[in-house]
C-alpha cells in the first residue's frame, strides 16, 4: 500500500496582499494532521501530511509536494487524499474559467499569483492510486468539477484506474465558505472553519450505526447531519465520479457501534442507506419495486449526489427486475412524478 495524504492550509498572507488571513485555517490544517496521524489507515506515514508555510508560500512549493504525493500511488488499493483549506477565487476570464486556490504569496485580484485548480486536478488525475479524493474548504468550491475524464476541465491527462471524489464546503449557487469558527463543536475543533471542524468531528466521533470503516458516503452524511443540526451552515457537496459511497477513507472511531440489524422499511431509511453505502444493498431494495420507485423519485429531487444515485439505481433496475410485472410496479411510481415535473 502506498496511500498518501497531503494537507494544504494557507491561513496567512502578506500584509499588503489584500487577502485576509484566518487563524481557523491554520487550526484546521493542524487538526487534519492530528486526525490523520491517529488513524491507523493513515498513521503509517513517515512525515506529517501537513505542508509547512515555506511550502504553501508558492504554487511551486505546493505543486512539488502534490506531485510527490500523487506519484506514491501505485495501484487500485492505494488512496490519494488532498485537502485544501484557504481562500478560493473564481476567474471566468482565464482559459476555461477556473477556481483558483490561494497560496501564501497570493495577492487579491492578481490571478497569476494564485494556484489554478487546473494544475491541481492535472496532478491528482495522473496518480495511479485507485481512489483519489480532493477535500476543498474554500470559497467558490461549489464551482469545482468532478475529477473524472468527463470533467469540464480541458486536457485530462493520464488514465484513472477507478474512482474519484470531490468533497466541497459549499454547493449549489453558494460561493462563500464561512471561515469563522463554529462554537457548537468540541475543542479544539471549535477553532477550525465550520466545514473542516464538522468533518473532523465526524472523524473524531465516528458514526455509531456504521461499520469499521468510514466510507465516503458515511463521511458526507455525517458532515451533512452535523451541520444541519447547527442550523447556521451551508450544505457541503460531494461529487463522485465512478467512486462509490461505499469506498472506505478513514477508520470509524465510534465506540459501541450498533450496525443496523432490522430491515429498512421507509423511503427515508433507504435514501440514507444509499447515501451511506451506495448501491451495496440495492438487490434488497429491489425486492420491493414500488418502494424502490419512490426512493428514486425522492433522490431525483435532491442535490447532485442524490441525482447521481438515482441515475445509478435506475441504470441497474432493468437487470435487478427481470420480471416485467415488478418493473411496471417500479416504473409506476417514477413515471407520474416525472410527468408532474418532479
Ligand atoms: Zn456548526
Description:
- This protein is an alpha/beta fold and 342 residues long.
- A hairpin with a 6-residue loop joins strand 3 (88-91) and strand 4 (98-101).
- The chain has helices at 23-38, 53-56, 59-72, 117-126, 194-205, 216-230, 267-277, 282-285, 289-300, 304-320, 324-339; strands spanning 4-9, 79-85, 88-91, 98-101, 115-116, 131-137, 164-168, 213-215, 237-240, 248-251.
- The strands form 3 sheets. A 5-stranded mixed sheet has the order 1-2-6-7-9, with helices on both faces. It has a 3-stranded antiparallel sheet with strand order 3-4-5. A two-stranded antiparallel ribbon has the order 8-10.
- It has 2 domains: 4-251, Rossmann fold; 267-339, no CATH class.
- Helix 9 (289-300) packs antiparallel against helix 10 (304-320).
- The protein has 11 helices and 10 strands.
- The chain binds zinc ion (ZN).
- Zinc ion is lined by residues 182, 184, 194, 198, 227, 230, 233.
- This is Caspase domain-containing protein.
- InterPro entries: Caspase-like_dom_sf.
- It comes from Streptomyces ziwulingensis.
The strand order across the widest sheet is: 1-2-6-7-9
Task: Report the count of strand segments.
Answer: 10
Going by CATH, the architecture of the largest domain would be: 3-Layer(aba) Sandwich
How many angstroms does the end-to-end distance come to? 45 Å
* Highest-level CATH class of the largest domain: Alpha Beta
The H-and-E topology, N to C, reads as EHHHEEEEHEEHEHEEHHHHH
Morphology: globular
Give start-end ranges of low-pLDDT stretches: 151-161
Rg (CA only): 20 Å
Structural class: alpha/beta
Amino acid at each position: 500500500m502506498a496511500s498518501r495524504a497531503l494537507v494544504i492550509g494557507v491561513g496567512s498572507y502578506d500584509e499588503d496582499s489584500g487577502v485576509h488571513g484566518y487563524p481557523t485555517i491554520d487550526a484546521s490544517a493542524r487538526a487534519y494532521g492530528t486526525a490523520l496521524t491517529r488513524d491507523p489507515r493513515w498513521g503509517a506515514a513517515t512525515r506529517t501530511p501537513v505542508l509547512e508555510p515555506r511550502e504553501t508560500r508558492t504554487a511551486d512549493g505546493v505543486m512539488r509536494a502534490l506531485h510527490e504525493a500523487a506519484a506514491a500511488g501505485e495501484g487500485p488499493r492505494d488512496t490519494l487524499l488532498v485537502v485544501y483549506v484557504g481562500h478560493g477565487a473564481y476567474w471566468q476570464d482565464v482559459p476555461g474559467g477556473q477556481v483558483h486556490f490561494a497560496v501564501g504569496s497570493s495577492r487579491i485580484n492578481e490571478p497569476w499569483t494564485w494556484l489554478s485548480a487546473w494544475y491541481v486536478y492535472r496532478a491528482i488525475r495522473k496518480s495511479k492510486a485507485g481512489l483519489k479524493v480532493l477535500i476543498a474548504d474554500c470559497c467558490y468550491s461549489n464551482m469545482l468539477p468532478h475529477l473524472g475524464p468527463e470533467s469540464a476541465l480541458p486536457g485530462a491527462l493520464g488514465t484513472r484506474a477507478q474512482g474519484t471524489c470531490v468533497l466541497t464546503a459549499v454547493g449549489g449557487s453558494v460561493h462563500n465558505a464561512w471561515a469563522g469558527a463554529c462554537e457548537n463543536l468540541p475543542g479544539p475543533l471549535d477553532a477550525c472553519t465550520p466545514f473542516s471542524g464538522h468533518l473532523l468531528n465526524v472523524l473524531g466521533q465516528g458514526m455509531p450505526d456504521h461499520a469499521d470503516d468510514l466510507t465516503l458516503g458515511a463521511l458526507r452524511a455525517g458532515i451533512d447531519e452535523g451541520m444541519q443540526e447547527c442550523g447556521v451552515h451551508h450544505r457541503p457537496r460531494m461529487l463522485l465520479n465512478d467512486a462509490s459511497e461505499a469506498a472506505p477513507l478513514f477508520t470509524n472511531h465510534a465506540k459501541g457501534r450498533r450496525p443496523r440489524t432490522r430491515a429498512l422499511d421507509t423511503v427515508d431509511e433507504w435514501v440514507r442507506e444509499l447515501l451511506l453505502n451506495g448501491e451495496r444493498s440495492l438487490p434488497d431494495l429491489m425486492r420491493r419495486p414500488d418502494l424502490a420507485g419512490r426512493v428514486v423519485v425522492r433522490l431525483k429531487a435532491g442535490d447532485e449526489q442524490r441525482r447521481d444515485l438515482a441515475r445509478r439505481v435506475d441504470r441497474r433496475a432493468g437487470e435487478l427486475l427481470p420480471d416485467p410485472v415488478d418493473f411496471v410496479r417500479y416504473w409506476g411510481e417514477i413515471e407520474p412524478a416525472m410527468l408532474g415535473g418532479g
